[in-house]
Design brief:
alpha+beta; ABC3_permease_C; 14 helices; disordered N terminus; twelve-stranded mixed β-sheet; single chain
Amino acid sequence: MRFPRFPGLRLRAPRRHKGPTPTIPRSHLTLHDLLSEAVAGVLQRPGRSALTALGTVLGVGTFVAILGLTATASSQIDSRFTALTATEVTVEDTGGDEPVKPALSFPDDADRRIERLHGVEAAGVYWTVDAPAARRVRAAPVGEGARGDEVPVLAASPGVLTAARATLQQGRLFDSWHDRERQRVAVIGAGTAARLGITTLDTRPAVFIGEVPFTVIGVVADVERKADLLLSVVVPRTTAAALWGPPIQNRAGMLISTRIGAAVQIAEEAPLALRPDQPGHFKAVPPPDPRSLRTSVTSDLDQLFLVLAAICLVIGAVGIANTTLVAVLERTGEIGLRRSLGAGGRHILGQFLAESGALGMLGGLVGTSLGVLTVLTVAVVRDWTAVIHPGTVAAAPLIGLATGVLAGLYPAWRASRIEPAEALRR
């Protein structure tokens, strides 16, 4: 092949370079530049960044609030359990192992026998009256047109209402004199009183249990133990035994209120104190261990609500991944320009991972603040002592950071695989 000649143009042979061939220095991206690019990418679209970080805010905030509220509630469970359940003992009348069991194993002076034990505050025997004649309760005189409702009738000694820590709305509770004299008096709950249309005790209202009238002497507003008292008509046990006999189907029981720390001992001594000759007729049930109950309740709450927090974090991660992927598609030209100027795939990967990590960290910090604020607000409103573990507060922003980085892995990898020539053609 012959090349045309151009006047004035001389072709010279290239000079040979003496020495080693020069190499192009590898491009690098400092940590300062990486963080600057990440912050600029987040601040470039503040509205989108805020919405993207919202899922992480909710997830981390829920995580902190749940752990804080669970720890705070656990301390309240401890105190309330110790004050109520840990001081309650119940005794069941099993009747022993005899083929023919006695209808009522409790002696007449069962209350006094138990109250003599050291550590007992109050005790009383009770059973549900199951006689057919006592199944309907009326608030009007017996006669044609009077309507009766099925209301449970509870036969109880005076100690039951004391052990249940009943709070009166009006009137009074029956005492040992009413029980000894078999008085036809009744104490009812506020709900039962409203159901029967009894609004005041000034007129000495009566209720008719079957055909027998009982004067209502007290209305109970609330009880701390044995909540079924609020839905029953409570009458003296001696009166119920004289009218309808001892319990037939429902075995009798005893409610004992003890001082703190005495419940287990009282449970061991109660059967022998009631019937030294037949202690096997009774089964005493002590309160469960408060530590095991607290652990069980706390574990259940932790598992339930941490699942909710995990769901929120997954939603936040999906939001970050989706937004980062859209950003990769929108910034294809920018990625191609950076690659053509020397940026390597690892630099693009680090840039987008830093942006998604910054969004996760930002969401984690805001979520931690909102979670702590939620715990403090609930504690102040409920008059509790806020309990937040320092490790929870320290770990929460890191969880947000990890969520952001994991969510940005695929979009960042995809951005690092974009070829410069193809990107510039777009």
